[in-house]
Amino acid sequence: MASISGNIITLNEENHIRECIASLQQICDEVIVVDSGSTDQTKAIAQEMGAKVIDQPYLGDGIQKNVALTHVSNDWVFSLDADERLTPELVQVIQNLNLDKTTFDAFSVRRRNLIGDRWIKYCGWYPDHFIRLYNHKKTRFADVKAHARVQTKNYKEIQADLIHYSYKHAGELFVKGDRFSTRGAKILFEKGRRGNSLSPVFHGSLAFFKKYILKLGFLGGVDGMTVALSAGINSYLKWAKLLQLQRKAGKSTEEENLWSL
Asked: Which of 148, 167, 186 is the last residue before a domain boundary?
Protein backbone atom coordinates (compact mmCIF):
# COMPACT_ATOMS: atom_id res chain seq x y z
CA MET A 1 0.00 0.00 0.00
CA ALA A 2 1.12 3.58 -0.71
CA SER A 3 2.47 5.57 2.21
CA ILE A 4 0.04 7.93 3.95
CA SER A 5 0.70 11.08 5.98
CA GLY A 6 -1.49 11.89 8.97
CA ASN A 7 -2.76 15.44 9.55
CA ILE A 8 -4.13 16.74 12.89
CA ILE A 9 -4.91 20.33 13.91
CA THR A 10 -4.80 21.02 17.65
CA LEU A 11 -5.34 23.52 20.44
CA ASN A 12 -4.97 22.24 24.01
CA GLU A 13 -5.74 18.62 23.20
CA GLU A 14 -3.52 16.90 25.80
CA ASN A 15 -6.38 14.59 26.79
CA HIS A 16 -6.81 13.33 23.22
CA ILE A 17 -3.61 13.73 21.26
CA ARG A 18 -1.77 10.58 22.39
CA GLU A 19 -4.61 8.24 21.42
CA CYS A 20 -5.29 10.20 18.22
CA ILE A 21 -1.70 9.89 17.00
CA ALA A 22 -1.56 6.22 17.96
CA SER A 23 -4.74 5.67 15.97
CA LEU A 24 -3.27 7.36 12.88
CA GLN A 25 0.02 5.50 13.17
CA GLN A 26 -1.84 2.29 12.32
CA ILE A 27 -2.10 3.51 8.72
CA CYS A 28 0.40 6.40 8.48
CA ASP A 29 4.19 6.41 8.36
CA GLU A 30 4.31 10.07 9.48
CA VAL A 31 2.00 12.36 11.44
CA ILE A 32 1.96 16.16 11.14
CA VAL A 33 0.39 18.12 14.03
CA VAL A 34 -0.48 21.75 13.24
CA ASP A 35 -0.86 23.46 16.61
CA SER A 36 -2.46 26.88 17.08
CA GLY A 37 -0.91 27.88 20.40
CA SER A 38 -1.54 25.12 22.94
CA THR A 39 -0.63 26.04 26.53
CA ASP A 40 -0.94 22.49 27.87
CA GLN A 41 1.16 19.40 27.07
CA THR A 42 -0.26 18.82 23.58
CA LYS A 43 2.93 19.62 21.67
CA ALA A 44 5.20 17.76 24.08
CA ILE A 45 3.06 14.62 23.90
CA ALA A 46 2.87 14.83 20.11
CA GLN A 47 6.65 15.09 19.82
CA GLU A 48 7.06 12.22 22.29
CA MET A 49 4.80 10.14 20.02
CA GLY A 50 7.03 10.87 17.04
CA ALA A 51 4.84 13.46 15.33
CA LYS A 52 6.21 16.55 13.59
CA VAL A 53 4.73 19.66 15.22
CA ILE A 54 4.12 22.84 13.23
CA ASP A 55 3.27 26.07 15.08
CA GLN A 56 0.61 28.07 13.28
CA PRO A 57 -1.81 30.65 14.76
CA TYR A 58 -5.34 29.59 13.92
CA LEU A 59 -6.41 30.62 10.42
CA GLY A 60 -9.78 28.90 10.21
CA ASP A 61 -10.79 25.28 9.75
CA GLY A 62 -9.97 24.53 6.11
CA ILE A 63 -7.01 26.88 5.88
CA GLN A 64 -5.47 25.39 9.01
CA LYS A 65 -5.88 21.83 7.76
CA ASN A 66 -4.09 22.74 4.54
CA VAL A 67 -1.03 24.06 6.38
CA ALA A 68 0.29 20.51 6.82
CA LEU A 69 0.35 19.93 3.07
CA THR A 70 3.60 21.87 2.71
CA HIS A 71 5.22 19.55 5.28
CA VAL A 72 4.00 16.07 4.30
CA SER A 73 6.25 13.58 2.51
CA ASN A 74 3.47 11.56 0.84
CA ASP A 75 0.83 12.28 -1.78
CA TRP A 76 -1.91 10.65 0.27
CA VAL A 77 -3.08 12.33 3.48
CA PHE A 78 -5.50 11.21 6.17
CA SER A 79 -7.01 14.09 8.16
CA LEU A 80 -8.18 13.26 11.68
CA ASP A 81 -9.46 15.53 14.43
CA ALA A 82 -7.95 15.10 17.88
CA ASP A 83 -11.17 13.64 19.31
CA GLU A 84 -11.54 11.01 16.57
CA ARG A 85 -10.27 7.43 16.31
CA LEU A 86 -10.11 4.84 13.55
CA THR A 87 -12.02 1.60 14.13
CA PRO A 88 -10.24 -1.72 13.45
CA GLU A 89 -12.57 -2.24 10.47
CA LEU A 90 -11.55 1.11 8.97
CA VAL A 91 -7.85 0.37 9.49
CA GLN A 92 -8.25 -2.95 7.68
CA VAL A 93 -10.08 -1.41 4.72
CA ILE A 94 -7.50 1.35 4.29
CA GLN A 95 -4.60 -1.10 4.52
CA ASN A 96 -6.18 -3.08 1.68
CA LEU A 97 -6.59 -0.08 -0.64
CA ASN A 98 -4.37 0.08 -3.71
CA LEU A 99 -3.73 3.81 -3.59
CA ASP A 100 -0.97 3.65 -6.22
CA LYS A 101 -3.42 2.51 -8.90
CA THR A 102 -6.74 3.96 -7.79
CA THR A 103 -8.58 6.30 -10.14
CA PHE A 104 -10.18 8.14 -7.20
CA ASP A 105 -8.87 11.41 -5.77
CA ALA A 106 -10.19 10.66 -2.29
CA PHE A 107 -12.13 8.32 -0.01
CA SER A 108 -14.87 9.18 2.47
CA VAL A 109 -15.62 7.40 5.74
CA ARG A 110 -18.63 7.14 8.01
CA ARG A 111 -18.31 9.07 11.26
CA ARG A 112 -19.90 7.57 14.37
CA ASN A 113 -20.67 10.52 16.69
CA LEU A 114 -20.87 9.89 20.44
CA ILE A 115 -22.14 11.88 23.41
CA GLY A 116 -20.39 10.26 26.34
CA ASP A 117 -20.62 6.57 25.47
CA ARG A 118 -23.93 6.93 23.60
CA TRP A 119 -23.87 6.55 19.83
CA ILE A 120 -26.27 9.08 18.25
CA LYS A 121 -27.86 7.39 15.24
CA TYR A 122 -30.45 10.04 14.32
CA CYS A 123 -30.62 13.83 13.75
CA GLY A 124 -28.34 13.43 10.72
CA TRP A 125 -25.48 12.33 12.97
CA TYR A 126 -25.10 8.91 11.35
CA PRO A 127 -24.00 7.93 8.83
CA ASP A 128 -22.05 11.18 8.84
CA HIS A 129 -19.94 10.93 5.66
CA PHE A 130 -16.72 12.92 5.36
CA ILE A 131 -13.76 12.69 3.00
CA ARG A 132 -10.72 12.10 5.16
CA LEU A 133 -8.27 10.23 2.91
CA TYR A 134 -7.21 12.22 -0.15
CA ASN A 135 -4.41 12.75 -2.65
CA HIS A 136 -3.29 16.30 -1.92
CA LYS A 137 -1.72 16.61 -5.38
CA LYS A 138 -5.27 16.44 -6.77
CA THR A 139 -7.48 17.97 -4.08
CA ARG A 140 -7.51 19.54 -0.63
CA PHE A 141 -9.79 21.12 1.96
CA ALA A 142 -11.62 24.26 0.91
CA ASP A 143 -9.87 27.38 2.21
CA VAL A 144 -12.79 28.41 4.42
CA LYS A 145 -12.91 29.28 8.10
CA ALA A 146 -15.66 26.87 9.18
CA HIS A 147 -17.11 23.49 8.21
CA ALA A 148 -14.42 22.82 5.58
CA ARG A 149 -14.66 19.77 3.33
CA VAL A 150 -12.31 18.24 0.81
CA GLN A 151 -13.20 19.59 -2.63
CA THR A 152 -13.70 16.73 -5.08
CA LYS A 153 -16.52 14.76 -6.61
CA ASN A 154 -14.18 11.96 -7.66
CA TYR A 155 -14.24 9.98 -4.44
CA LYS A 156 -15.39 6.60 -3.15
CA GLU A 157 -17.25 5.85 0.08
CA ILE A 158 -15.55 3.46 2.47
CA GLN A 159 -18.11 1.36 4.31
CA ALA A 160 -16.37 1.56 7.67
CA ASP A 161 -16.48 3.98 10.60
CA LEU A 162 -14.26 6.29 12.51
CA ILE A 163 -15.37 7.19 16.02
CA HIS A 164 -15.93 10.80 17.04
CA TYR A 165 -16.01 11.53 20.76
CA SER A 166 -18.12 14.61 20.11
CA TYR A 167 -19.07 15.59 23.66
CA LYS A 168 -18.33 14.24 27.14
CA HIS A 169 -21.96 14.76 28.15
CA ALA A 170 -25.14 16.38 26.86
CA GLY A 171 -24.44 19.67 28.62
CA GLU A 172 -21.38 20.23 26.43
CA LEU A 173 -23.62 20.60 23.38
CA PHE A 174 -24.91 23.85 24.88
CA VAL A 175 -21.63 25.04 26.43
CA LYS A 176 -19.63 24.57 23.23
CA GLY A 177 -22.57 25.80 21.21
CA ASP A 178 -22.20 29.24 22.77
CA ARG A 179 -18.61 29.42 21.49
CA PHE A 180 -19.52 28.00 18.08
CA SER A 181 -22.40 30.47 17.69
CA THR A 182 -20.07 33.39 18.37
CA ARG A 183 -17.67 32.18 15.70
CA GLY A 184 -20.55 31.50 13.31
CA ALA A 185 -21.96 35.01 13.77
CA LYS A 186 -18.59 36.56 12.98
CA ILE A 187 -18.27 34.47 9.83
CA LEU A 188 -21.78 35.46 8.69
CA PHE A 189 -20.98 39.11 9.33
CA GLU A 190 -17.70 38.93 7.41
CA LYS A 191 -19.54 37.33 4.48
CA GLY A 192 -21.96 40.24 4.39
CA ARG A 193 -24.97 38.31 5.69
CA ARG A 194 -27.48 40.40 7.62
CA GLY A 195 -30.49 39.53 9.75
CA ASN A 196 -33.51 41.21 11.27
CA SER A 197 -35.43 40.85 14.52
CA LEU A 198 -37.18 37.70 13.24
CA SER A 199 -34.01 35.94 12.07
CA PRO A 200 -33.03 34.29 15.38
CA VAL A 201 -36.49 32.78 15.90
CA PHE A 202 -36.82 31.70 12.27
CA HIS A 203 -33.42 30.05 11.98
CA GLY A 204 -33.57 28.55 15.47
CA SER A 205 -36.97 26.97 14.80
CA LEU A 206 -35.87 25.75 11.38
CA ALA A 207 -32.74 24.10 12.80
CA PHE A 208 -34.80 22.30 15.45
CA PHE A 209 -37.38 21.16 12.86
CA LYS A 210 -34.69 19.77 10.54
CA LYS A 211 -32.99 17.77 13.29
CA TYR A 212 -36.08 16.55 15.12
CA ILE A 213 -38.48 15.92 12.22
CA LEU A 214 -36.66 15.73 8.90
CA LYS A 215 -33.60 13.96 10.34
CA LEU A 216 -35.80 11.67 12.50
CA GLY A 217 -34.48 12.89 15.84
CA PHE A 218 -37.81 11.93 17.42
CA LEU A 219 -36.79 8.29 16.99
CA GLY A 220 -33.77 8.88 19.22
CA GLY A 221 -35.70 9.56 22.41
CA VAL A 222 -34.07 11.96 24.87
CA ASP A 223 -30.83 11.98 22.87
CA GLY A 224 -32.67 13.05 19.73
CA MET A 225 -34.53 15.81 21.57
CA THR A 226 -31.30 17.03 23.18
CA VAL A 227 -29.43 17.24 19.89
CA ALA A 228 -32.36 18.97 18.15
CA LEU A 229 -32.77 21.48 20.99
CA SER A 230 -29.07 22.31 21.01
CA ALA A 231 -29.13 22.81 17.23
CA GLY A 232 -32.10 25.16 17.55
CA ILE A 233 -30.61 27.15 20.43
CA ASN A 234 -27.20 27.40 18.78
CA SER A 235 -28.73 28.66 15.54
CA TYR A 236 -30.86 31.15 17.48
CA LEU A 237 -27.77 32.45 19.30
CA LYS A 238 -25.75 32.73 16.10
CA TRP A 239 -28.30 34.98 14.46
CA ALA A 240 -28.92 36.96 17.67
CA LYS A 241 -25.17 37.59 17.91
CA LEU A 242 -25.13 38.62 14.25
CA LEU A 243 -27.71 41.30 15.12
CA GLN A 244 -25.42 42.52 17.92
CA LEU A 245 -22.54 42.82 15.46
CA GLN A 246 -24.78 44.72 13.04
CA ARG A 247 -25.85 47.16 15.76
CA LYS A 248 -22.27 47.66 16.89
CA ALA A 249 -21.14 48.33 13.33
CA GLY A 250 -24.05 50.70 12.79
CA LYS A 251 -23.23 52.63 15.95
CA SER A 252 -19.62 52.97 14.90
CA THR A 253 -20.70 54.30 11.50
CA GLU A 254 -23.00 56.85 13.15
CA GLU A 255 -20.18 58.03 15.41
CA GLU A 256 -17.84 58.39 12.44
CA ASN A 257 -20.45 60.41 10.60
CA LEU A 258 -20.88 62.73 13.60
CA TRP A 259 -17.13 63.36 13.81
CA SER A 260 -17.01 64.10 10.11
CA LEU A 261 -19.57 66.91 10.40
From this structure: 167
Same domain, 9 and 112: yes
Q: What angle do CA 127, 65, 87 make, to 5 degrees?
A: 40
Of 167, 191, 225, which residue constitutes the final position of a domain? 167
Identify the CA nearest to 76 among candidates 18, 27, 35: 27
pLDDT tens digits for 120-152?
Answer: 999 999 988 999 999 999 999 999 988 899 999
Alpha-carbon distance of 202 to 224, in angstroms, equals 21
Q: Comparing C-alpha atoms, which of 96, 67, 93 is closest to residue 79? A: 67
Q: What is the pTM for the complete model shown?
A: 0.84
Distance CA 212, CA 230 (A): 11
